[in-house]
Here is the input.
Amino acid sequence: MTDIEDLASLAAKFDRSNIRAPASLQEVVSSGNCMGCGICESIAGPEYIEMKVLPPEQRMRPVFHKALEAEVHGKALAACPGAQVSSLPGWKPTTGMEAFVGKVMSIQRGYASDPETRFKAAAAGGLTTLGVHLIESKQVDFVVHVKACALYSDETTQGSKLSFTSAEVFDGRGSRYGPVAPLKSLEDALRLKRPFAVVAKPCDINAVRNYAKVDPRVDELCKCLMTVSCGTYADNVCVDKFLKQHEVEHSEVEEFRWRGHGCPGHTPYVKTKDGREVADDYVDFWFYNGKEAGPLTYQWRCKMCSDFLGYQSDVVVMDCWPNGLPERRNAITEERKHEWDGWVLIIARTQRGQDVVDSAKAAGMLTLGPAEGREVLQTQPHQARRAASNFIRRYSHASRPLTALDEGAALQVAKWAMDEDFVDEVMATGPAAPVVADAAEQLREILPKGEAWAEEMLKMPERHIAYHLDNFKGTLKRLERGDASETVSAAVPGRTSERQSRNGYV
Here is the structure.
């Protein structure tokens, strides 16, 4: 086989030359590439763009009130993580496995030393502790994040939360497995001209990194970007289904949690104003499609994500259950009961991330021990499966707009697909693709002619060819049924209309 480095470079070049990125903010939405981060509202201002939870899926989306000046629109589009995904400069992985784990300064396993934080926060309290530590050690003046334990219909928690004290950070603890706009107040944070940190999803971190390329204040003031391993999040309509299943109205909810109070804790959990408590098990809700409250639905951008492990962050915190699956709350074994207390992997990806983790550990706020890169695949196999199939799923978009990748990100995605050893390891984590007698012939008809990387892909083992073919067909089927099409709300005349954005591409 031709050198993997050469093949991946050729495949990455092909991706960058043939994928058409959205040409406007409206097209980001209409082509299913918006994830609702809110950075467009932050840059343009709410009088022009306002983030709203919109039916029918109850997704967080921009509402376009007035036309933007070209310069402002260009700045917002440059920052938009639905338009492009970047990479950490200078990092170049040599194998598919290295590309999957991402840039590493250190990998450690552990938990928040404070028992209350470890119990009440999500993922062993890792991110909550880091946010608290940054404020208490005066490395930053405040943290930009969201309030996790809140029902999505509470408009006061749909955007950013700027926390200036450790108590305020702790108040935002937990997971927010649903649409929220953590960056809608990023400009407010920058205008304060004070050092701050950001805790958000990987795609939100991508937006901050993008924005830093057009606004120097970001790198000057933002001292640490922290995130999680993100396995996508369900539409808010799934919360409505859950409440309906348990015969609870929105107005009756006093407390709502996605996670916490154990690791992972109930998912979701609701306490009503009259004292009733209803909950599902994490395993049933996420791994069995919502169980009775399902089926769960997701936005297209999450399904096509190329940065699920926070590859551009300074620090990423991720669950570390064996095979990515916790035990059910009512079936915890003696062998694994310690997991309920909460354990995570913490990866420092940059020097400043390493400094933050080291200082939190030295201060006694994190209890950490060494871990290895292979543990990322062993505990995040669902993410590895997303990685190995990402390149061919991107190829299935043809002329449809899709989030563009910079050179480093495109090379990373290509290595996931072209490294046979990595694909084998990924395939070992789940069921094999359906056997197709003429899979190679079918894939040959699909792949571009005269491309060296395509010819080498066709020389892969039959099981790999079946895997790539299955993922291509599955993605194409979803595209053809309209999964990536969305309506633009209050579209600006002259740019697009609701009819165009639902039925075509601008």
About this structure: The first strand starts at residue 49 and ends at 54. The chain has 23 helices and 15 strands.
